[in-house]
TrEMBL record, chain A:
Segments passing through the bilayer: 6-24, 33-51, 57-77, 98-122, 128-146, 177-197
Subcellular location: Cell membrane
Alphabetical keyword list: Cell membrane, Membrane, Oxidoreductase, Transmembrane, Transmembrane helix
Keyword Cytoplasm: no
Name this polypeptide is given: Hydrogenase-4 component E
Membrane topology according to the record: Multi-pass membrane protein
Cellular component GO terms, alphabetical: plasma membrane
Species this protein is from: Rhodopseudomonas rhenobacensis
Gene3D superfamilies named in the record: 1.10.287.3510
Transmembrane helix recorded as keyword: yes
Automatic annotation (TrEMBL), chain B:
Membrane topology note: Multi-pass membrane protein
Origin species: Rhodopseudomonas rhenobacensis
Localisation: Membrane
Transmembrane segments: 6-31, 66-89, 95-115, 135-156, 176-194, 230-248, 254-278, 290-309
Domain of life according to the entry: Bacteria
GO MF annotation: an example: oxidoreductase activity
Subcellular location, principal: membrane
Keywords: Membrane, Oxidoreductase, Transmembrane, Transmembrane helix
Signal sequence extent: none
Name of the molecule in the record: Hydrogenase-4 component C
UniProtKB/TrEMBL annotation, chain C:
Example GO biological process: ATP synthesis coupled electron transport
Topological type in the membrane: Multi-pass membrane protein
Lineage, opening ranks: Bacteria, Pseudomonadati, Pseudomonadota, Alphaproteobacteria, Hyphomicrobiales
Protein name according to UniProt: Hydrogenase-4 component F
Gene Ontology MF term list: NADH dehydrogenase (ubiquinone) activity; oxidoreductase activity
TrEMBL record, chain D:
Predominant cellular place of this UniProt entry's protein: membrane
Ranges annotated as spanning the membrane: 32-49, 69-95, 115-132, 168-188, 242-258, 270-288, 300-321, 333-352, 372-390, 411-434, 454-478
Domain NADH-Ubiquinone oxidoreductase (complex I) chain 5 N-terminal residue range list: 70-101
Name used for this protein in its record: Hydrogenase-4 component D
Subcellular localization, as worded in the UniProt entry: Endomembrane system; Membrane
Bilayer topology term: Multi-pass membrane protein
Keyword Transmembrane carried by entry: yes
Enzyme Commission numbers on file: 1.-.-.-
Length: 217, 312, 512, 479
C-alpha cells in the first residue's frame, strides 16, 4: 500500500474508533476509546507527514499526542469516573445498531459531497477527506443522539478531531502556531465542559440532558 | 473438469469433517464442564449417543409429511456438499466452481430452510414455534452475512472463497478498514449461526430454536445431532477460509495437507476455547434482544460497504 | 508610542488586567481594589479603542504583528463598539455586583472571578475583531464562548448552570462548524497562494477570484452556520435566550450588544470574500432567507415571553435577523444600513438589559406579570426603560428608527418590496410587545409595600450615557461615524479606496 | 419666521422635558405656559406672514451627506393648520387643568406629570408635522404623535384603556409603513426626501408614492380599513379625546395627504378615484354606526370618522382639478377642529359635572347649565353643517367644487349624491339628540350636576365663538 493509502485506511479506523466511543457504556470507557481514536489520528498525521513529506506534521502529531492521547483522556477519565446518574441508564436516544447505520449513511453522503471537490491538494486523499467530514458530522450526531451530557462532550471532541483531520489533510503546511492555537482552544473547551458538567452533576444530581429543561420557550 | 486429486481431496475432507463433528461437540462440552468445575460426560459421549440412537426405532408424528421425513437426509447432504466446497486443508477450493461464495451461502440457506420447514411440518406447536424462530433468525442474520461477504468479494475481486482468502491473507485488497469491518460483521453473523450463548444453546433441546428437533427420534435424530455439530464445524471452516487462511497448504502435497490439517485443528482448538469462555461469561439473551444485536451487525456490514464505496 | 503598537496594546490591556485580577487575594478588603483595577482596565480599553478608531479614521488601516492583527475601518466599528459598550456595562457591573454580593447571591471569590472573566471576555472579543488571521479569528470566537460561559453560569443555580451548559455546547458545536469553514477557506486559498499568506484575510480577499467556487460555497455555508450560531441566527439561536436571561444583567448587555455582533463581524468578513469569489447572488440569497426566517420566528417569540430578559433576548435575535437582511439585501446602502444597525442595536439593547438588571434587583423577579409600576418605585430606571423600549421599537427620534428605515429603503432599492413590507409588519408585532412592557410594567400600580428608591448612581450613570448615545445617533449622527461606515462599506464591497469616498447615498445616485 | 416656527415646535418639546423633570404640582402650569408660548409664537408668525404678503418659504434644518433630512416650510396652509392644532392644544391644556382634578364625577383624579408631558410633546410634534417639508420629517413626527397618543389614550392605566392605546399605536404604526414606502421610493427615485420632489416623479412612481401616503393617511385618520382604533380610543380622558379626534392625531392623515397633493403637480386620476371612493364608503359606514350609539363620546367618534371622510372626499375631488374642493377640505379641517373640540369638551364637561356620558340619561341641559346647553347646540349644528356655523361653509365648498368637476366624471356624481344624503341624514340625527338633550326639564343626572369650573367655561366660550368665526377666518386666509 502506498503512503496515501495508509492514510486513507487509518482514516477509516477513525470512524470505527469513534463508533466505539459513542457506543461504549460508561463515559470513562469512552475516554479510553477516545484515547485510542486520538492515537489513530496521531498515526494519520505521521503517515501523512511521511507520505507528503511535510515535516511540520510531525510537530502536529507530537502536539496531538500530548493533548489528545494523554491530557484530555486523562482529564476525562479521572473526572467522569466520579460522576454518576442512576436514572439515566444508557442515555441513548437511538440504539447502537442505528448509530452504526447512521455512521454509514453519513460516510456515504460525505463521500458524495467530497467527490465534487476539485482541489489539487485533495487528489489522493479524497476518501480520508470524506471520512474527516463524516467524522465531524458523526460527532454532531453523537451530541444530538446522546442524552448523557458527558457523551455530548465526547461528541464535541469527535467533531474537533474531524476538523483537525481536514486541516491536516488539506493544509498540512499551515503555520504551527495555528495548530497550537486550535489545539489549546479545544483542550480549554473540554476542561470547561468538564468543570461545568461536574457542577451540574453536583447541583442537580443528573447527567441527563433531558432533565435540563427548566428554561423553555 | 476437476481432477481426481481434487475430487478425492474434497471427499476426504468432507468425510473427515463429518466424522469429527461429534468429537468437536464433545470437546466443547467437556470444556464447558471444566469451566463450570464439574465433571461432565467424556469427550466421546456424542459418539455413544449417536450409536445408541441409531439402534432405536424411527418414529414420526401422524401429521408429519414429506418435509419432515426428508429433512435429516437433505441436511446432511447439503452440509456434505458444503464440506466439499470449502477449502479446509488447502488455500484453493477443492473443486473449482463449487466453492463459490454464493453457492455456499445458499447451501447454508437450504439447510436452514429445511430445518425450519420440518418444524412446521411436524404438526407440533412447539416444533412449529421453533421452526418459525429459526426462520426469523435467518432473516435477521442472513443480510449481514451476505452484505459483509459481498464487500469482501468486491474487495478481493472474486467470489471464489479460496481466491478471497488468498487476497485478504496477502493484503492484496485496497481497503484495510473495509476488510476489518466486513470481517467483524461476518464473524459476528457466523457466531449467530453457531447457535451459541447468548443467542442459543444448540445442545439443550428444549430451547425453542432447537424446537424442530423435538419430534425426531431414532436414526433421524442421530443424523441431526451429527449434522448440528457438522454445521458448526463448517461455519468455522468457512470463516477460516476467508479471513484466516493462514497455515493451510497452497498445494496438494501430502506434507502441505498435513500441515494444513494441523493448522486447522489448532485454529479450531483456539476457537473452541474462545467460544467456551464467551459462553460462560454471558447469560442467555432474550430472543427479543436478538434483532437489536443483529441490526448492529448489519450496521457494521453497511459501514464496511460504504467504506468500500468511498474507497478507503 | 508608534501607531502599530496600538492593536497589541489594546489586546494586552484587558488580558493583563484580567490576569492581575485573577491573581489578587480574596479578602474582604481587596474587593474595592479589584473594582478599581477593573475600572482602570475598562476605561483604559475604551481610551485605547477610541484612539485606535481615531487613528484608523485619519490614517487608514492599521496592520501589525506580522500582518496577523489588522484594524481596518470595518474592524474599527467593532473595536469602538466593544470599547464603548464594554466600558459602560463594565461600569454598570460595579453597582450591580456590589448589590449581589451584599445580598449574598455572590461570594467574594465569585466577585473576583466575575471581574477577571469580564476582562478576559473583552480581550477575546477584541481578539476576534482585530484578527486578520482567519484561524485566529476562529480561536477568538471559540475563546469568547469559553470566557463568557463562566459569566453566564456565575450564580451557580440550577437554571444558570443549565443555561451555561446549553450555551457552551451549542456554541462550541456551532463554532466547530466555523472551524471547518475556516479550514476549507484556508485550504482553498493555500492552493493558489503561499500557506503563510493564505491564513490572512487580506490576502484571501485579494486572491478571492482564484478560489475553487464549490469549496467557497461549502465554506460559506459552514461559516454561516458556525458563526451564525454565535450571532443567534435562526435556527441556531436556541442558546441565546437562556444565556441572556440567566447571565448577570451587565453580561447580558455585553452578550447581546457586542458578542452577537462579533459573530456577525466574522460572517461579514467571509461574506466579502465570498461575494468577490463567486458573486453576490449565492451568499445574499442565503442571508436573506435566514434573515427573514429569523425575524419571523423571533417576532412571535418576543410577543409570548413573560420573562423580561428572555423577551429582550428574543428581540436581539430579531434585530440580528434584520442586520442579516440588510447584508442579504446587499448593495452599499444595505451593508451600510446593516453596520449602522449593528451599532444602534448595541447601545439600545445594552441600555435595556441594564434597565432589566435594575428591575431584577428591585423586584427580585424578571416576570413581567408581577413587575408593575417601575415608574413609581424607581422613576429614573422607569424612564430609561421607557425610552429604551420606544427606541428599540423603532420610534423616532431614537437611533434604531434611522437604521431600520435604511434597511427598509435598501430592500426596496434591491427590489424586494413584498419582503420588506412583510418584515416591517413582523416588526410591528414587536412594537406591540415593547409597548406592552411599558404599559404593564413601567406604568401600572406599584406593589403596596414597595418603597420608592432607585438604583444607585453607579448603575444609572452608564444608562444615562447610553441613552444620550441613542439620542445622538438618532438625531444627528456624528460625522466620523458616517465616514467610518462609508469606508467599512467600501471594504465589504471590496471597492478599494477609489470609490469608497462616495457616501452610500451617492452610491445610489451614481447607480442610476 | 423660521425661528418662530421652530420655536413653536421646540417650546412644547422643551416644556415636555421640563415637566418630566420638575415636581408634579408644577406640571399643569408648565404645560399651559409652554402651550401658550407656542400659540403666541404662531400667532406672531401668522401676523408676520400675512403682513409679508404670504410668500412661502422653506428652510433646511438637518442635512446628511448632502440630502435634506428635515426641513420646515411656511406657507398659507401650514400656518393656518399650525395655528389650529397648536391653538387648540393650548385650549385643551387649559381645559385639562380644570378637568383632571378630584372634583371630576366620572374620573376623579390628581393630575400626573405624564399627562402634561405627553400633551406638550404632542403639540410640538403636531407643529413639527405641519411645518415639515420632507417625507422623512413627516414620518418622524407621525411616529412621535403615535407614541404620544398611545401614552395619552392609556392614561388611566385600566386594562381596557391600555388595550385601546396599544391598538391605536399598532394600527397607525402599520399604516405608517405607507410613509416608509413613500419615503423609500422617493429617495431611491430622486435621492431626496423633499416633498417638493413628488412633482418631478414619473407617473408610476408618483402614483405609488401618493397611494402609499394615502394608506398612511387612512391609518391616522381612521378611515376604512384602519378605522377600528378610533372608537376604542375613547377610553382616553375626554380632553385628550378632544385633542386627538378634533385637532391633532386624525388631522395628521388628512394633512400629510393634502401636502402630498399640493406638491404633486397634478396627481394621477387613479389616486383621486381611490381616495373619493374610499371616502364615500367610510362616510356611509360612519353614518350607519351613528345609529346604535348611546355613549356620547362614541357617537362623536363615528362622527369624526365621517367628517374626516368629507375632507378626503374634498382632497380626492381636487385631484380632478377643483381648487375649490381642496380649499374646502383644508377649511373643513380647520373648522372641524374647533367644532369637534367644542363637542368633545361639552361631552367632557357633562361627564365632569354629571358623571355620565350616556345620552339617554341626559335631558334638560339648557335649564341646568345654559352654557353647556348652548355649546351643545352650537357644536351639533356646526358638525351637521347648518349655517351660519362653520361646518356649513367648508362642506359647501367641497360640494360646490365637487359638482363642478363631476360634470366630466359621472362616477363622482354618484359619490357626491351619496355624500349629500349622508349630510342630510346626519343633520336629522344630530337634531334628534339636540331635541332630546337640550330643552325640557332636567333629568335626574343633570339635575344633580355640579358647576362647571371656570377654566373649562372660558375654553368653551372661546370655542363657541370660533365655531362661528373660523370658517370666515379660513376663507379670508386661504383667499
Amino acid at each position: 500500500m502506498s503512503g496515501l493509502q495508509i492514510v486513507n485506511g487509518l482514516a477509516g479506523l477513525l470512524i470505527v474508533t469513534s463508533l466505539l466511543v459513542v457506543v461504549a457504556r460508561k463515559p470513562s470507557q469512552s475516554a479510553k476509546f477516545y484515547a485510542l481514536q486520538s492515537l489513530v489520528l496521531v498515526a494519520v498525521f505521521v503517515a501523512l507527514g511521511s507520505a507528503t513529506n511535510a515535516p511540520q506534521l510531525y510537530v502536529w502529531a507530537a502536539v496531538a499526542f500530548v493533548t489528545k492521547v494523554v491530557l484530555v483522556p486523562v482529564i476525562m477519565a479521572r473526572s467522569f469516573g466520579r460522576l454518576s446518574d442512576e436514572r439515566l441508564g444508557s442515555g441513548e436516544r437511538i440504539s447502537p445498531a442505528v448509530t452504526v447505520l447512521l455512521a454509514a449513511v453519513v460516510v456515504l453522503l460525505c463521500t458524495l459531497i467530497i467527490s465534487g471537490v476539485t482541489l489539487p491538494a485533495a487528489a489522493g486523499i479524497k476518501p480520508a477527506l470524506a471520512i474527516s467530514l463524516a467524522h465531524f458530522f458523526f460527532g454532531l450526531a453523537c451530541i444530538v443522539t446522546q442524552r448523557n451530557i458527558l457523551k455530548q462532550v465526547f461528541g464535541y471532541c469527535l467533531m474537533e478531531n474531524g476538523s483537525h483531520l481536514t486541516l491536516a489533510l488539506l493544509a498540512g503546511s499551515a503555520p504551527e502556531l495555528v495548530e497550537i492555537g486550535i489545539t489549546t482552544d479545544a483542550v480549554f473547551a473540554v476542561v470547561i465542559m468538564v468543570i461545568l458538567a461536574t457542577q451540574i452533576n453536583r447541583k442537580l444530581a443528573t447527567l441527563d440532558a433531558d432533565q435540563l429543561t427548566t428554561l423553555k420557550g | 473438469m476437476p481432477t481426481l486429486t481434487q475430487v478425492s481431496l474434497a471427499f476426504v475432507q468432507a468425510l473427515l469433517l463429518l466424522a469429527a463433528a461429534p468429537l468437536f461437540t464433545g470437546i466443547t462440552r467437556v470444556l464447558r464442564a471444566k469451566m463450570h468445575t464439574r465433571r461432565g460426560p467424556g469427550v466421546l459421549q456424542d459418539y455413544r449417543d449417536v450409536i445408541k440412537l441409531l439402534r432405536r426405532q424411527n418414529l414420526q408424528p401422524p401429521a408429519a409429511g414429506f418435509a419432515f421425513r426428508a429433512m435429516p437426509t437433505v441436511m446432511i447432504a447439503a452440509l456434505l456438499t458444503i464440506a466439499m466446497a470449502v477449502p479446509v486443508l488447502t488455500r484453493a477450493v477443492p473443486i473449482p466452481g463449487l466453492g463459490d461464495l454464493i453457492t455456499v451461502i445458499y447451501l447454508f440457506a437450504i439447510v436452514r430452510f429445511f430445518f425450519s420447514l420440518s418444524g412446521l411440518d411436524s404438526g407440533s406447536s412447539f416444533a412449529g414455534i421453533g421452526g418459525s424462530r429459526e426462520l426469523t433468525l435467518g432473516v435477521l442474520v442472513e443480510p449481514t452475512l451476505v452484505l459483509s461477504l459481498l464487500v469482501c468479494a468486491l474487495l478481493a475481486g472474486s467470489t471464489d472463497i479460496g481466491a478471497m482468502g488468498e487476497a485478504i491473507a496477502t493484503g492484496h485488497v485496497r481497503s484495510a478498514g473495509a476488510v476489518l469491518l466486513a470481517g467483524a460483521a461476518a464473524i459476528f453473523a457466523c457466531y449467530f449461526e453457531l447457535g451459541k450463548l447468548p443467542y442459543d444453546m444448540a445442545e439443550a433441546e428444549q430451547e425453542l430454536q432447537e424446537g424442530p428437533l423435538s419430534e425426531y427420534s431414532g436414526p433421524s435424530l442421530a443424523l441431526l445431532k451429527v449434522a448440528m455439530g457438522f454445521k458448526q464445524l463448517l461455519i468455522l471452516a468457512f470463516v477460516f477460509a476467508i479471513f484466516v487462511p493462514y497455515g493451510s497448504s497452497s498445494d496438494t502435497s501430502l506434507v502441505g495437507l498435513l500441515i494444513g490439517l494441523a493448522a486447522f485443528i489448532a485454529k479450531i482448538a483456539v476457537v473452541a476455547v474462545v467460544l467456551g469462555v464467551v459462553e460462560n461469561s454471558v447469560a442467555r439473551a432474550r430472543f427479543r434482544l436478538t434483532p437489536r444485536h443483529s441490526w448492529f451487525g448489519l450496521g457494521i456490514a453497511s459501514l464496511a460497504f460504504v467504506f468500500y464505496i468511498s474507497g478507503l | 508610542m508608534v501607531a502599530s503598537d496600538l492593536p497589541p496594546l489594546l489586546l494586552l490591556s484587558p488580558l493583563v488586567f484580567a490576569l492581575v485580577i485573577f491573581a489578587m487575594p480574596t479578602s474582604g478588603r481587596s474587593a474595592r481594589l479589584i473594582e478599581l483595577l477593573h475600572l482602570v482596565s475598562i476605561v483604559g480599553t475604551l481610551v485605547l479603542a477610541l484612539t485606535t478608531v481615531g487613528y484608523v479614521l485619519s490614517h487608514g488601516t492599521l496592520v501589525t504583528f506580522g500582518d496577523w492583527l489588522m484594524v481596518d475601518p470595518l474592524a474599527a466599528i467593532f473595536v469602538g463598539l466593544i470599547g464603548v459598550v464594554g466600558c459602560l456595562t463594565g461600569f454598570y457591573s460595579i453597582g450591580y455586583i456590589r448589590h449581589d454580593v451584599a445580598h449574598g447571591e455572590l461570594t467574594a471569590v465569585k466577585q473576583k472571578l466575575y471581574y477577571g472573566f469580564f476582562n478576559l471576555f473583552l480581550f477575546t472579543m477584541l481578539l476576534v475583531v482585530t484578527a486578520n488571521n482567519i484561524v485566529m479569528m476562529w480561536v477568538g470566537i471559540e475563546a469568547t464562548t469559553l470566557g463568557s460561559a463562566f459569566l453566564v453560569g456565575i450564580y451557580g443555580k440550577g437554571t444558570s448552570l443549565e443555561a451555561a451548559w446549553k450555551y457552551l455546547i451549542i456554541c462550541s458545536v456551532g463554532v466547530a462548524f466555523g472551524l471547518y469553514g475556516t479550514v476549507l477557506t484556508f485550504a482553498n486559498a493555500s492552493a493558489s497562494i503561499d500557506p503563510h499568506q493564505a491564513v490572512l484575510w487580506t490576502s484571501i480577499l485579494a486572491h478571492a477570484q482564484d478560489l475553487d467556487p464549490t469549496l467557497v460555497k461549502i465554506a460559506f455555508v459552514f461559516v454561516l452556520i458556525g458563526f451564525g450560531t454565535k450571532a443567534g441566527i435562526f435556527p441556531m439561536h436556541a442558546w441565546l435566550p437562556d444565556a441572556h436571561s440567566e447571565a448577570p444583567s451587565p453580561v447580558s448587555g455585553l452578550l447581546s450588544g457586542v458578542l452577537l455582533k462579533c459573530g456577525l463581524f466574522v460572517i461579514i468578513r467571509y461574506y466579502a470574500v465570498t461575494m468577490k469569489a463567486i458573486g453576490p447572488e449565492f451568499p445574499q440569497s442565503i442571508l436573506l432567507v435566514l434573515g427573514v426566517l429569523t425575524v419571523a420566528v423571533s417576532a412571535f417569540l418576543v410577543f409570548v415571553q413573560h420573562d423580561f430578559k428572555r423577551k429582550l433576548a428574543y428581540h436581539s435575535i430579531e434585530h440580528v435577523g434584520l442586520i442579516v437582511i440588510g447584508l442579504g439585501v446587499g448593495g452599499p446602502l444595505g451593508i451600510a444600513a446593516a453596520l449602522l444597525h449593528t451599532i444602534n442595536h448595541s447601545f439600545t439593547k445594552a441600555l435595556l438589559f441594564c434597565g432589566s438588571g435594575n428591575v431584577l434587583q428591585k423586584y427580585g423577579t424578571r416576570d413581567l406579570r408581577s413587575v408593575k409600576g417601575i415608574l413609581r418605585t424607581a422613576p429614573v430606571t422607569g424612564l430609561f426603560i421607557m425610552a429604551g423600549a420606544l427606541a428599540l421599537a423603532g420610534f423616532p427620534p431614537f437611533n434604531v428608527f434611522v437604521s431600520e428605515f435604511m434597511v427598509f429603503a435598501a430592500g426596496l432599492d434591491a427590489g424586494y418590496p413584498k419582503l420588506m413590507i412583510l418584515v416591517a409588519l413582523l416588526f410591528t408585532i414587536t412594537v406591540a410587545a415593547l409597548v406592552d412592557i411599558i404599559a404593564h410594567s413601567v406604568l401600572g400600580k406599584a406593589p403596596e409595600n414597595m418603597e420608592k428608591s432607585d438604583s444607585s448612581w453607579l448603575s444609572l450613570a452608564p444608562m444615562g450615557v447610553l441613552l444620550a448615545l441613542i439620542m445622538v445617533f438618532g438625531v444627528a449622527m456624528p460625522r466620523p461615524v458616517g465616514d467610518i461606515l462609508r469606508q467599512a462599506t467600501g471594504i465589504v464591497m471590496d471597492q478599494g479606496h477609489a470609490t469608497a469616498t462616495a457616501t452610500p447615498i451617492e452610491h445610489v445616485a451614481a447607480k442610476k | 419666521m423660521i425661528a418662530l416656527a421652530l420655536a413653536s415646535i421646540l417650546l412644547p418639546t422643551v416644556g415636555a422635558a421640563l415637566i418630566a423633570l420638575s415636581p408634579r404640582s408644577a406640571s399643569k402650569r408648565l404645560g399651559q405656559i409652554f402651550a401658550g408660548l407656542a400659540t403666541a409664537c404662531l400667532l406672531v408668525l401668522a401676523y408676520q406672514f400675512s403682513v409679508g404678503g404670504k410668500i412661502p418659504a422653506e428652510y433646511s434644518v438637518i442635512n446628511f451627506g448632502g440630502v435634506e433630512i428635515l426641513g420646515f416650510g411656511v406657507d398659507t396652509v401650514s400656518v393656518l393648520v399650525a395655528c389650529a392644532v397648536v391653538g387648540i392644544g393650548f385650549l385643551i391644556s387649559i381645559y385639562s387643568g380644570g378637568y383632571l382634578d378630584a372634583g371630576n364625577r366620572e374620573h376623579p383624579d390628581i393630575v400626573r406629570r405624564r399627562y402634561f408631558a405627553f400633551l406638550s410633546l404632542f403639540i410640538g410634534a403636531m407643529a413639527g408635522l405641519v411645518f415639515s417639508t420632507t417625507v422623512i420629517g413627516q414620518l418622524v413626527f407621525f411616529e412621535i404623535s403615535g407614541v404620544c397618543s398611545w401614552a395619552l389614550i392609556g392614561y388611566y392605566e385600566k386594562p381596557k384603556s391600555l388595550y385601546s392605546a396599544a391598538k391605536a399605536l399598532i394600527i397607525t404604526h402599520i399604516a405608517s409603513l405607507g410613509l416608509y414606502v413613500a419615503a423609500s421610493v422617493m429617495f431611491l427615485e430622486t435621492h431626496t426626501f423633499a416633498l417638493s420632489a413628488i412633482g418631478g416623479l414619473s407617473e408610476t412612481a408618483k402614483t405609488i408614492v401618493l397611494l402609499a401616503i394615502l394608506v398612511a393617511a387612512w391609518g391616522k385618520s381612521a378611515q376604512l380599513p384602519f378605522h377600528m382604533w378610533l372608537p376604542d380610543a375613547m377610553e382616553a380622558p375626554t380632553p385628550v379625546s378632544a385633542y386627538l379626534h378634533a385637532a391633532s392625531m386624525v388631522k395628521v392623515g388628512v394633512y400629510i395627504f393634502a401636502r402630498a397633493l399640493m406638491s404633486s403637480n397634478g396627481a394621477p386620476e387613479l389616486v383621486g378615484y381611490v381616495c373619493t371612493i374610499m371616502a364615500t364608503i367610510t362616510l356611509v359606514y360612519g353614518f350607519i354606526m351613528y345609529l346604535p350609539q348611546c355613549d356620547m363620546k362614541r357617537l362623536l367618534a363615528y362622527s369624526t370618522i365621517t367628517q374626516l371622510s368629507y375632507m378626503f372626499l374634498g382632497l380626492g375631488l381636487s385631484v380632478f382639478g377643483s381648487q375649490m374642493a381642496f380649499n374646502g377640505a383644508i377649511a373643513h379641517l380647520f373648522n372641524h377642529a374647533f367644532a369637534k373640540t367644542l363637542f368633545f369638551l361639552v361631552a367632557g364637561a357633562l361627564s365632569y359635572t354629571t358623571g355620565t356620558r350616556m345620552l339617554p340619561l341626559l335631558r334638560g341641559v339648557l335649564s341646568k347649565s345654559p352654557l353647556l346647553g348652548i355649546a351643545f347646540v352650537v357644536a351639533a349644528l356646526a358638525i351637521a353643517g347648518v349655517p351660519p356655523f362653520n361646518g356649513f361653509f367648508s362642506k359647501f365648498a367641497i360640494f360646490a367644487g365637487g359638482f363642478e368637476v363631476a360634470q366630466q366624471h359621472p362616477l363622482l356624481m354618484v359619490l357626491l349624491v351619496i355624500a349629500l344624503l349622508e349630510s342630510v341624514g346626519s343633520f336629522a340625527w344630530f337634531l334628534k339628540w339636540v331635541g332630546w338633550t337640550v330643552p325640557g326639564r332636567p333629568s335626574e343626572a343633570v339635575a344633580a350636576a355640579s358647576p362647571v369650573p371656570l377654566s373649562m367655561q372660558i375654553v368653551l366660550i372661546t370655542l363657541i365663538v370660533m365655531a362661528v368665526c373660523s370658517s370666515f377666518i379660513a376663507a379670508i386666509w386661504l383667499g
